[in-house]
Amino acid sequence: MSDHDKDEHGHELSNVPDEAVTDDLYPNPGLPEHHWRPTDVDPKAERRAERQVATLFLLSVVCTVLFVVSYFTFQVGDDWDTIGGFGASNLTLGLSLSGALLFIGIGIIQLARKLMADKEIVEYRHPSASSEADRAEALTALNTGIDESGIGRRPLVRNTMLGAVGLVGVTAIIPLWDLGPKPNQVGPGKKYDYPGAGIENTIWTAGMRVVRDVTGTPIRPADMEIGDLINGEPAGIFNGGPDGEPLEGVVLQINKSKGAVVVVRMEPDEIIPAEGRENWAVDGIICYSKICTHVGCPISLYERTTHHLLCPCHQSTFDLSDSARVVFGPAARALPQLPLGVDEEGYLIATAPFDEPVGPSYWERG
Amino acid sequence: MDTTKVATSNTTTAATTKKKNRVGAVAGWADDRLGLAALGKKQLRKVFPDHWSFMLGEIALWSFVVLLLTGVFLTLWFNPSMGEVAYDGSYDQLRGIEMSEAYASSLHISFDVRGGLLMRQMHHWAAMLFVASMMVHLLRVFFTGAFRKPRELNWVIGCLLLILGTLEGFTGYSLPDDLLSGTGVRAADGFIKASPVVGTYMSFLLFGGEFPGEAIIPRLFTVHVLLIPGLLLALIAAHMLLLVYHKHTQWPGPGRTEQNVVGYPMLPVYAAKAGGFFFIVFGITAMMGALLTINPVWKYGPYDPSKVTAGSQPDWYMGWPDGALRIMPGLESEIFGYTISWNVMLPILILPIVMFIILLLLPFLDAWITGDKRDHHLLERPRNAPTRTALMVALMTMYGLFWAAGGNDIIAITLHASINQITYFMRAAVIIGPIIAFFITRRWCISLQRKDNETVLHGYETGIIMRSPEGGYSEKHLPLPESKAYALTARDRDPVPNGLPSGGTDANGVPAPEGGRLAGLRHRLRTLYYADNAQKPTPEELAEGHHHAEHEHELQTGMDGHAADGHQFDGHHLVEDEHLRDPHH
Amino acid sequence: MRLLNRSAGRLSRHRRGPLAGLAVVLLGLLLTGGLYTAFSPAQAGSTKSSADQIEQGRQLFIVGCSFCHGQNGEGVLSEDGESQLGPSLVGVGAAAVDFQVGTGRMPMAQPGAQVPEKQETYDEEEIAALAAFVASLGPGPAIPDESDYTLEGLSEEERQQAIVNGGQIFLTNCTACHNFEGSGGAMPRGGYAPRIRGVEPRYVYEALLTGPQNMPNFSNGNLPPESKRNVIAYLNSLEEQPNYGGFGLGGFGPVPEGLAAWLLGIGACVGAAVWIAAHTTRSNKKKADA
Question: What is the percentage of chain A residues whose pLDDT exceeds 90?
Answer without folding.
Answer: 72
